[in-house]
Design goal:
It contains twelve helices and 48 strands. It is an alpha+beta fold.
Amino acid sequence: MKLNYSILLCVLLSSISALSQNDLDITAIFNTEKHTIDITQTIQYQNKTNKTLDTIYLNDWSHSYSSKTTPLAERFADEFKTTFHFAKNEDRGFTAITSITQSNQKVFFERLEYHPDVIKIALNTPLTPNSFYNITLNYIVQIPNNKFTRYGVTDDGDYNLRFWYITPAVFDGTWHYYSNKDLEDLFVEPADINLKVTYPNGFTPISELDVVSNNTIESNTTTTFSGKDRINTKFSLVKNNDYNTVETDFFNIQSNIDTEDLPPTEIAISTDRVAQFITNNLGDYPHKKVLLTWIDYRKDPIYGLNLLPDFIRPFEDTFQYELKLLKTTLKVYLENTLLIHPREEQWLLDGIQIYYLMKYVDEFYPNQKILGKLANVWGVRAFHAADLNFNDQYPFLYMHMARTNIDQPLAMPKDSLLKFNKNISSKYKAAVGLNYLNDYVGDSIVYNSIGDYVKQSKLKRSTPEDFKYLVQSKTDKDLSWFFNDYVNTSKKIDFKIKNIKKTEDSITVTLKNLRHTKMPISLFTLENDSITSKQWIEGFDGTKTVTIANKEVDQLALNYDYVVPEFNQRNNYKKLNGFFLTNKPLQFRLFKDIEDPNYNQVFFMPEFEYNFYDGLSPGLKLYNKTLLSKRFLYKVSPKFGFKSKQIVGSASLVYNARPENSDNFRTRYGLSGNYYNYAPNLTYSSFTPFIDFNFRNHKDLRDNKRKYLSFRYVNINREVDPTGEFETEGEPKYSVFNAKFGIVDNNLKEFSSLFTDLQLAQNFGKVSATLEFRNLNERNKQFNLRVFSGLFLYNDTYQDSDFFSFALDRPTDYLFDYNYLGRSEQTGLLSQQIIIAEGGFKSKLTQPFANQWMTTVNTSATLWRYIMLYGDAGIIKNQNFSPEFVYDTGIRLNLVEDYFELYFPLYSNLGWEIGQPNYDEKIRFIVTLSPKTLLGLFTRRWY
């Protein structure tokens, strides 16, 4: 009887839930001259909790563009995106609310201080459990330019919009509201939407909602759309309609994604295949149409394919198009059906998306290589990368972040992830993890559970916990390792075969877990490189011994099929025959490659360097660095200087320790050596043992603050100049102990750093500190301040030379740290190169050195755009002389900050420099030619 009542109650509650519906009625009038939308909107929203509410919250993400201090603007600054900060005011968007009423009475509302794109409303009438509130809003949306997030008005006058109208924040006992950070993760509940849009004739509206009517009056057209149970509604208003609709037996796809110039028949076949695959795995789509835009794909591309120019097509056009279409459709399908918290629980949606992308390739393109047709090209096919299948990229790109110790837990909120993790690594880790879990559980249980979860959760609030319970209900195996460790931590997986004991009929294998996780690992037996058996070993800590049959086996391997995303696969093999059971053959490869765990790889590649004294120096670099970071690295790079006619070059040995769950995310131990010319036909050699400590906030990797601590012992041996032109008396051979500590905190709007330096040698000891501050204000004016102060603790060299003295404008660089093109040049263009170090002056003053102490201040401020006014001032103190005040001023062309700049001196201790002879020789320049340094300009926003 109790069971019958329970069933009746469930049916009743389900009926009530079905009748309860949120409604959004929106009337939007577009003004295409002012790029505004005049909106009248009614919201009906149900309180589905047992709490009475007197305050509600609304999402107004159009207002996130309103200033340079919103959370969206701050995120742009953290990722060094300049377009928003330097944009014209009229290019930024905002929302101007004219009224909000409840039952025709005005209500009090305000924007939250730290979330200006969230509106707080005090209801006139409290909202009791299970009742609805009805409010009416009148507001104007100023549409932003699309150059910030790709949404907004284009240069051609088209409109691509998302999150453009106000929506209710979700309340399930807790309010779920947060600011727009260009993560496409607004959390809303399904609602019935009625949208009436008025726009000038000549435009075509594009929406995933269903068209109800069209009505044209004079120069304007009004189109009415409607949709039931909608979560996400993108809207476009375009002059030239480049969208095409393909009807399938499952759902229609309207898209303007690049079709790779495929003929219509091929497009139709590919679209039908994609729609059928998704429907077979995830069930029926609850709406008639899926809308796919070029923005959808550009924001979530097939990485690799998106970087290739059109003239390089390593993949068949059909394959490229199908994967683009599949990945984008999967994302839109899941976003429109799965009601999970998109900022807190995104990993599951991402994992399902990439998981099915992998399954699609396995099913329809099982032989597709990661390099496509290039894998068969002579020269390329010699690389190990050419052997990898297309799906091998997913564990590889996750491992790229794991090996560098900056991967993050899957369950971490989306806005806390590094850009590389958010866009690539975390998605791939989630999908690889689901595949790992499926293989471990067996019988396709996880594969089927993913489809069941999506089918059962459509348009219903669900969480990853629901998925966990669903999978766990279908197996007796313990899955806590996956949800507790794999999902909620950034713990790594790494096993090795420690020991083997053979008898005539059995093999006893001792495995060692190199990490403190209890994740399972697979053990394979091989004979003649063919798999003869596979078994899963339950997770364990420390060591574990298992016994297997000594039959059809000449080699043991862990994770032979690479299903487990293991940190290091180079220690997974043991041969049963031969003297060197773990010996791997040596393999030489031209150019850097993906590591092959079956070989000890040595890479070599041509390398070119240039300095004024050696000239162009081609050579050969031998090294072991692969595309994935390794702990132990070596490099030997001999070269021949065409100008010096000598063998020059460098070599290094480095061991990288990467402690986990520590702010000390990397420690480098190493030795390095160099042999080059420092002046015409004068060589120098250096030998330096060192230890570097690198720190960053491991709990918040998005924090741009970095700390550095280094210790090194620099040994220099310079060849003496017999002509006396390059003075080396007293310092041809010297050793310096150097300790440095630095703090750098950097983003687009603010930069600050502090570096301290201690140097101790036989004949001198010195200490210095450099403080630097840079600010970009709201009016796009930049101000720079740099302070340097240095003091000799003892100095027995000042009577012989200024080689070790503090320099005002051009340090002697006796530790050979700076990338001078011509370090010993006193005249000519190369002598005008400046590296902002020590005094930081730009003018060449009469006394450019200080052998006792020095304090200087360098400043610059924007005059117009990249033209700045600079000024330097300081006091230098030399032995047996009184302190001297020095100064200079001039114009700075800040073309690329710290990478390419020009300085034009105007006035200094020398007088009015611009009027003096040979002024062109006084102009100074900063130039950076290092590809690695220049690459940092682009990679800093990803890591």
